[in-house]
Amino acid sequence: MGEIASPGQLRMSFLRRALFVIPLICLIGIGSGRLANSGYGNPWFAMLVKPAMTPPGWVFGLVWTILYVMMGLALAIILNARRAPGRGVAIAVFLIQLLLNFAWSPLFFAAHKVTAALALLLLLIVLAGCAIGLFWRIRASAGLLLIPYFFWLCFAAMLTFQIDKLNPDAERLAPGGPRAQIQL
Fold this sequence. Notes:
mainly alpha
């Protein structure tokens, strides 16, 4: 039985995948951040000394939404590239890095593990670079869609490194806890 599809069928197949994958990635990503109480509304995060290069809070929500849409679109392109050599490995690497991405906000904002969050970001940078290369081999457009994500991860790693450096006791900070400054 032949599996030749018309161009219209291929477009509809891609559209169905994209209409499922893009919202799913956005919802899980945004949900991960909300569950971890990420951002400037987090009392622990508000107490931290932040580097001068830290953007305003609204930038993070906007950028992550755009990046999640681009990541979903890239994945939909690869999912639609049936029988492409390396497709399974590319999808696996992408999904592993995506799950680690979703784990970053709870690790940083909820668990207050700044150093561990930095290590996770460094691993994410490596995996995102691998995903870009693997996607590129299958469909260059899918690889291109991940490049802004890669650079944002690099920026996030620089921010996290600076936060870790400026707040060596960040993991022990407890928002709203008693503070005593007694000098003898």
